[in-house]
TrEMBL record:
Pfam family, one: Tektin
Presence of the UniProt keyword Kinase in the record: no
Gene giving rise to this polypeptide: Tekt3
Family: Belongs to the tektin family.
Function: Microtubule inner protein (MIP) part of the dynein-decorated doublet microtubules (DMTs) in cilia and flagellar axoneme. Forms filamentous polymers in the walls of ciliary and flagellar microtubules. Required for normal sperm mobility.
Origin organism lineage: Eukaryota, Metazoa, Chordata, Craniata, Vertebrata
Predominant place of localization: cytoplasm
UniProtKB keywords: Cell projection, Cilium, Coiled coil, Cytoplasm, Cytoplasmic vesicle, Cytoskeleton, Flagellum, Membrane, Ubl conjugation
Recorded superkingdom: Eukaryota
Chain coiled-coil ranges: 108-135, 380-407
UniProt membrane topology term: Peripheral membrane protein
Protein name (database record): Tektin
GO biological process: cilium assembly; cilium movement involved in cell motility
Signal peptide positions on this chain: none
Amino acid sequence: MELYGYPLKAKFNQPRPPPPKVLPATSTMTGSCYNKTRMPYQPESFSMPWMPNSYYKAAALNPTLSPLTESFPGLPPTKMVPFVSERPNGVFSRHTLDDWHRSNMTNYKESETTRHNAERLRADLNRAIKDVYQQGKRSQGESTQNLGERVNDIEYWKSELCIELDAMIRETNSLADMQKRLERALADTEGPFQVAHKCLLNREKRMGIDLVSDDVEKQLIEEIKIIRSCRERLQQCLDTVNAQLMCNKEARQELEKDLADKQLGHHIDSKCYQMKNTSRGLHFFKGVERIDATVSVPETWARFTDNNIFRSQSARAASAKLRASTESLLMGTADEMWRQFSKVNDAFTSRITEIANAKSKIQTHLAKTRQEIFQIETKIQVIQKTIRDKEAQLKVAQTRLDERTRRPNVELCRDAAQLRLVQEVNEINETLRNLHQCLRASEDMLQMLVRSKGVLEHDLVVKNNSLFIDQERCMGMRKSYPSTVQILGYV
């Protein structure tokens, strides 16, 4: 039976039920807020000093009054109620009426004093409870305010990290594009290098006097040197760009890791900031306040993110500077290679013009030589016919002289006919000697003309071969030389 006006006995003061014989499954325990390291704290007892467990047990006992001698030791012995055993039927009085009144007054005063003390205690308890609530509210409000400031700080650094991460991603993509342009430009220099090398090899197939070290060969050798130098510079720049890309990726990874940590921390602190006394999932964690798992202070925490941002900004600045120098290198090498390519083409054009002019002159001299050979051959034929005619005349004159030697006796006269025949034979012999000299001279000249013709024809073949090599093979390959746009790597 519970008395009216007294606090009810709480349910948690009832004896606990006996534990079940079978333990629950482990799967049901893992699904709850069970944690090996942080177990929710369950207080041993919720009993308060002002609500003892034995309250109703003590109140249920029958109170007994102690003897007045014990309660009021100061009473005189004469006032003591004598024990009279001679009362009939065992009835007797133990105390007097004054004792009864004094006992009542004492109880009244004690009750009044107890009530006064209880009222004062209740007032003190109300003030203490109010102070506890106010202090708890103030402490919780300060903690909530600090959590809110922490959330704002994390949001600020998150925004800074996001801005820097976006800038780093854009810069890395730009540098990656520059890397691809460098690789294409380096690959495009292979074609001009092979063309210049093949031109030198093809010009080694020139023949005779045309196998000279002319300006074309010098410009081709210079072009090979320039292309090799440009390839080395482009390769060095490509290695630098690759190293800078690695630095950018490392800075980007640090930013992403820091941003992921900030996002997780922001989620946890936001969850803590939104917690209230009525929130769900609240538990006791005994001794958690004694665990210090922190690894930084606000200064080192902010300095860590600031260092990551500064490192990323430094990497971006170096990357932008490298992109500018790479762009300048691409333009410089392209312009240098293109100017040397133009010089080689100009040298080829000039040399082709010289060879063409020489070929034209050779053809002209060859035509004239052939015409002269034809005329000399004609003259030789005329001289040979003249010699044959003169030999016929000589035969006639000598035959006449031979026949006249057979004249008898005095008929062998040195007459005018004899003298003229002798003179005619001498004249014909002199003429034949002159004609034979002219024939030999003409034949010698014909041999010289034929030799000159052979030289001219061979020289014409040499010039044709040189013209074919320079004009068809070399210039034919150099027409497919990549343009400046291809060298710069825009396509």
